[in-house]
From TrEMBL:
PANTHER family, A to Z: AMELOGENIN, NACHT DOMAIN-CONTAINING PROTEIN
Matches recorded under Pfam families: NPHP3_N
Biased composition (Polar residues): 707-727
This protein's name: Nephrocystin 3-like N-terminal domain-containing protein
Region (Disordered): 707-748
Sequence ranges assigned to domain Nephrocystin 3-like N-terminal in this UniProt record: 269-451
Annotated keywords: Repeat
Length: 896
């Protein structure tokens, strides 16, 4: 029997005392999480002390094994240092070693209880006493080396083949499965050793029989189990682990959405000039190698040279350019390996877009990048081991924290050579945090990162390296892609001319003239073509626009012309477009695609008909908005964030599509939500009651609860209750749009089965009080106050009034809404609405129809608010367990 603990990037450690010093020094060098490292250090030392006695025994029986313990201590130190870089992985590895420590036999204790002494000659002459000891040391050393391989990058030509214990088939079992076998082997070896040391001379036959059983058990575990069915079962188990880690990561951003959408729009043979850029080629072509990837000092000192910034103004076409880079890195990956054994680099990417305002936090990017790499390397052994380790004993409902995701991503980047392409960093909600994450990743791996953004993004000082040209920045001006944009315009305009868009008497020299005014702005060129393709324009009007290029100068001029075209749409289509703009720009959160389709078809004050010519699908939105809004399989968004900015800047006197008056927009969205609840939901319980909870409620006295009934799980909903919403001033100073969440962008959870047929129910139930609160909140600036008082019609000023009145008079509708809110873990709270409605009532003449209706609405909302508070404070703990109980509560007039 032999043992080899030599492993790449492992230095022998002469003694246990030196190992303790090395571990302590490694803990002190850590800048973060020093307390965690110190606790884990103690557990590593406890593990090493338990192993120390076994090496003394082996040395007595096998004199040639004197160097084994030095290699073993070095292996422990290597695992400690490698795992200490990734906090969550470090804690998981420490848990494994702690379990091994408890499972290993305590030889000193067994020897003390031995019935007859064991002399040195017997130790040297018989291996039977030490065979289980050798098994323990060999198994544990093998497992440590596997951990070290998982935590470093090893060549594909250097798999673990050095140990007789594990067959090739066994090697491809995930780490948690192998650890379960290790635990079983340790338990059997412990029992074997107890039998060897506890038996008497007269029990030789019994001991020999038990010895044979142990050998048979251990040999059987080491044998490869083949078979197609077994292979399929193992593959299914691996994929379940991948699914669990993806659920744990909780990445709901459609990271491929923007890339694939831009890919379909990409003009052939464009952006090739960038791929020949000297800085880009130098950044891309430096080969990856395992030695550099595992050299922590080199990674720490030279990370700045692996980060590349590409900067250009808005509208340049950076998203298209980033897509070209993704394709280039993916296609050229095989040419960047230094030899056949080195793994080809993979590419992961993320696009920040303010139009996708629910996925613009740095944590969203980290989750998406990690999700991509796990999928890319789902068949790789080291990645599968890491996944198995992370999900081991992790509750299925638990979600990864930002630190967990950062550690996981850093480990994946350490395991595999990787390019990261991140576009739109200027549209990230926290650029400073993102630019702090990048050095953290680059100091722990040899990954290379390219960041696309606008020139105004300030590069932190840590990206600057003394006596070098870091940071590496490629600055692109209007002349960089002028030729590509001109070719794009000319080709598309000639195509339109061939199709008769400009009539039969067009002077084609106009095409060249208009192309030369592009100034290298791809966004302007794209919007120009959208405008000219509009079916509202006649051929003569299109030709006249080309004859007056000064009227099309600048992006704002194009947007103004497009909105002017939309003004000629029928009234119903204009209302539809306004609703789309308002929901995209000022929605609290983005509904799912079916929910969005339902929302834009709601006509406040009447039931929605989901068929016929009046019902509009999401696919029709680009046509009706002249492509200012784009629709992909996963998202409905503005074509560019500048569209929203223009709509919020343009005066209502200039365009009826203006979003400058946010109060009016929120009033409309509140009316949509309330109308849906009043007319379009079933007036019955949404789910089955819990009979046990119902019986408890009827037979026991309610217990008052002073705790917030927002509940500890309210984060699942992705919405804020009114009681926990930001103050009015916070709303006014926050960035416009649905990105007013302070931390990671909210992700809509999986749709529960009970509301699968009502995709807009979540948004309508949880957001109508927020929209109405913002609609009634007095604006801070005087111009907005003038805007608020400008509508002369009460239906324009208070579009929510009729729907809210109808809603309050329908007890079944109110009760359904209350049940839905509780099911979404956000108990309803209207406390903030009451004083705001009182203020509106005081400004409205009481003799008018609106004044009388407002008085009744204020009275109804006040009573409903009191009833909701009573349910929350007195019965909340019961209703939280069974929301259907609200159908049997009669404490308030607003519910059944």
């Amino acid at each position: 029997m032999t043992l080899s603990t030599n492993a790449p990037y492992t230095l022998p450690c002469a003694s246990l005392a030196l190992l303790a010093e090395d571990l302590s020094a490694a803990s002190r060098r850590s800048k973060n999480h020093r307390g965690t490292l110190t606790i884990c250090e103690e557990k590593y030392l406890a593990f090493a002390r338990r192993m120390d006695i076994f090496f003394d025994l082996i040395a007595a029986a096998i004199p040639s094994s004197s160097a084994w313990h030095c290699n073993f201590w070095g292996l422990i130190c290597a695992v400690f240092k490698a795992a200490g870089t990734y906090v969550i992985v470090f804690e998981k590895v420490t848990e494994l070693l702690e379990s091994v420590t408890h499972l290993m036999p305590d030889y000193k204790q067994l020897l003390a209880a031995r019935t007859r002494p064991l002399d040195l000659e017997e130790r040297r002459g018989s291996e039977t006493y030490f065979e289980p000891v050798l098994h323990v040391v060999t198994d544990v050393a093998q497992f440590l080396r596997e951990l070290q391989e998982m935590l470093t990058r090893t060549s594909h030509g250097d798999p673990l083949r050095h140990n007789r214990l594990f067959s090739p088939t066994y090697l491809w079992r995930p780490l948690d499965s192998r650890f379960a076998q290790l635990e079983a082997r340790l338990v059997r070896n412990k029992e074997w050793l107890e039998k060897e040391l506890g038996g008497t001379e007269t029990e030789y036959a019994i001991t020999e029989k038990y010895r044979a059983e142990c050998r048979e058990f251990l040999d059987k575990q080491s044998q490869a189990q083949e078979g197609e069915e077994l292979g399929l079962q193992r593959m299914a188990k691996r994929m379940r682990r991948i699914d669990r880690i993806k659920t744990w990561l909780d990445s709901n951003c459609s990271y491929r959405d923007i890339y694939e959408h831009r890919l379909r729009q990409r003009h052939p043979n464009t952006c090739a000039w960038f791929l020949d850029n000297e800085k880009y080629c130098r950044w891309r072509n430096i080969p990856f190698d395992d030695e550099s990837a595992n050299d922590t000092d080199r990674l720490e000192n030279h990370w700045q040279h692996r980060v590349l910034f590409v900067q250009a103004e808005s509208g340049f076409g950076k998203s298209y350019l980033s897509g070209i880079v993704v394709d280039d890195l993916s296609s050229e990956a095989g040419n960047l390996s230094i030899d056949d054994e080195t793994e080809s680099p993979s590419t992961a990417f993320y696009h920040f877009s303010a139009a996708h305002s629910y996925c613009i936090h740095p944590d969203d990017a980290l989750r998406a990048l990690t999700d991509q790499l796990i999928y890319t390397h789902r068949h790789d052994r080291s990645t599968l081991d890491a996944v198995s380790l992370l999900v081991r004993k992790t509750p299925t409902h638990e979600k990864a924290t930002p630190d967990d995701v950062l550690s996981t991503l850093a480990l994946l980047l350490r395991q595999h050579p990787t390019f990261l392409v991140i576009d739109g960093i200027d549209e990230c909600s926290d650029v400073e945090l993102l630019l702090r994450y990048i050095p953290t990743l680059c100091r722990k791996s040899d990954t290379r990162v390219v960041l696309f953004g606008r020139p105004h993004v300030r590069i932190p000082n840590e990206y600057h390296k003394w006596a070098s040209d870091a940071p590496h920045v490629i600055s692109l001006g209007s002349g960089s892609n002028k030729h590509d944009v001109e070719a794009y315009i000319i080709e598309n305009l000639h195509e339109l001319a061939d199709q008769g868009y400009f009539g039969i008497s067009m002077d084609r020299s106009l095409i060249t003239a208009i192309a030369q005014t592009c100034k290298g702005n791809f966004l302007w060129a794209s919007c120009l073509l959208k405008y000219l393709r509009s079916p509202v324009l006649s051929p003569d009007e299109r030709r006249a626009k080309l004859e007056k290029p000064h009227e099309l100068d600048g992006l704002e001029a194009i947007y103004a012309h497009i909105l002017a075209l939309l003004e000629f749409r029928p009234e119903g289509e204009r209302r539809f477009v306004v609703g789309v703009f308002r929901l995209l720009a000022l929605g609290i959160h983005r509904p799912c695609m079916p929910g969005f389709q339902k929302a834009i078809n709601v006509s406040p004050g009447q039931r929605t008909i989901e068929f016929g010519p009046s019902f509009t699908t999401n696919e029709a939105i680009p046509l009706l908005t002249c492509d200012l809004v784009e629709v992909t399989p996963c998202n409905v968004t503005f074509a560019h964030n500048s569209v929203r900015e223009y709509l919020q800047a343009v005066s209502p006197d200039t365009s009826s599509f203006s979003l400058q008056d946010e109060n009016l927009a929120h009033a409309h969205l509140a009316a949509v939500c309330i109308s849906f609840l009043a007319f379009d939901i079933p007036k019955r319980p949404l789910g089955p009651n819990n009979p046990h909870v119902s019986q408890l409620l009827l037979s026991s006295q309610a217990q008052s609860s002073a705790t917030s009934m927002r509940t500890i799980n309210s984060g699942d909903s992705g919405y804020k209750s009114i009681s926990s919403a930001p103050s009015i001033s916070e709303h006014r100073h926050a960035a416009p749009g649905p990105s007013n969440v302070p931390a990671s962008s909210a992700r809509p959870p999986c749709q529960p089965q009970w509301d699968a047929a009502l995709p807009f129910l979540r948004y309508a139930s949880l957001c109508w009080p927020i929209h109405l609160t913002r609609a009634l909140t007095p604006p801070l600036n005087s111009s907005s106050q003038q805007l608020q008082s400008s509508p002369s019609s009460s239906s324009q000023q208070y579009p929510w009034l009729t729907s809210l009145s109808t809603f309050l008079t329908d007890r079944a509708a109110v009760t359904t809404w209350v049940e839905a809110s509780w099911r979404y873990n956000l108990p309803p709270n209207l406390s903030r609405l009451v004083p705001l409605l009182e203020a509106v009532k005081s400004r409205t003449p009481p003799a008018t129809v609106e004044g009388r209706e407002l008085r009744w609405v204020v009275h109804g909302v006040r009573e409903l608010s009191e009833g909701l508070n009573a349910v929350r404070e007195g019965w909340g703990h019961r209703v939280r367990e069974d929301p259907g109980l609200v159908w049997g509560w009669r404490g308030g007039r607003g519910m059944i």
